[in-house]
Amino acid sequence: MKEGNRPIGLLDSGVGGLTVAREIALSLPEEELVYYGDTLHLPYGPRTREEVRGFVFKIIDFLIEEKRAKTIVLACNTATAFTLEEARRRYPVPVFGTLDGACKKAVRESRNQKIGVIGTEGTINSQAYQRALLELDERLQVFATACPRFVELVEEGNFAGREVFDTANRYLDGLKGAGIDVLILGCTHFPYLIPVIRRVMGDKVTLINPAVEMAGEVKKWLKQEGLARQNGSHQEQISQQEFLISDMKRISKTFLEKGSKFLKLPSLNFTEKNIFEGEEDDS
Question: How far is CA 235 from the centre of its chain?
């Protein structure tokens, strides 16, 4: 297999990272993607750094060794916050995370230097976004809020409705009061909820979707390194995408229905591939 024709490997704790897969598919329609959602251990947000580290490196090993991925995309903010730097040292292929591009765009977009970040408990408590933003501009005021219920709602296929709106109001009330003008969606599940989040925050707050920035970074790297796929059409690429999950029982029928429409894919066909043999689901 030619180096450029090897797939791009993506991983997440569940289906949230498909928002990243969608942006990469739109930006690089000729590329083959292999996506691994670790639904067996969902969610990563409340887990310890060591737990997440073990899961993530196991998946990366699988994507590189068995799927021959030419690059790895951590389509998960908690995984990025806990493992990105070590993963870059550990593996022979480039590893992309969610932080850098999103933070740079947020700083460019902010007019009043008040930036909000929402994410899982793990991402917010890691202070990864907060540090990255302040390293770019120490004058910033950064307001961060954990929104764990958002992840559960998305995994259930609940993208709208009264419960979603009330949950968003509760989580985002403090950020509205802080007067932020930019909000980073620091979890790849959250773009599914953009219409509700935008309704709550108002049109004057710019929403930053890290998935868009990640797709741009991957595209730029492939071009620079001469590793872009040279053949294949968009339709062929869609048919060749692999969506793997570690536990099929964790996939909601509602998500399969609504998620395929949101992602603009004809269908979402997941294959169960449990690479964590002998492990129990202890969540």
Answer: 24
Which of 102, 187, 218, 244 is labelled catalytic?
A: 187
- The Cα 24–Cα 32 span in angstroms is 10
pTM confidence score: 0.90
42, 63, 76, 128: the catalytic one is: 76
103 is catalytic: no
| Active site (annotated) includes residue 147 | no
Reduced to 3 DSSP states, what percent helix, strand and coil does the chain have, rounded to the nearest 5? 50, 15, 35
The predicted-structure confidence for 78-88, as pLDDT tens digits, reads as follows: 999 999 999 99
- Report the distance separating Cα 8 and Cα 24, nearest Å: 9
Domains by residue range for the chain, with CATH: 3-97+212-272 (3.40.50.1860), 99-210 (3.40.50.1860)
Specify whether the backbone of 233 is left (phi greater than 0), alpha (psi in -120 to 50) or beta.
Answer: beta
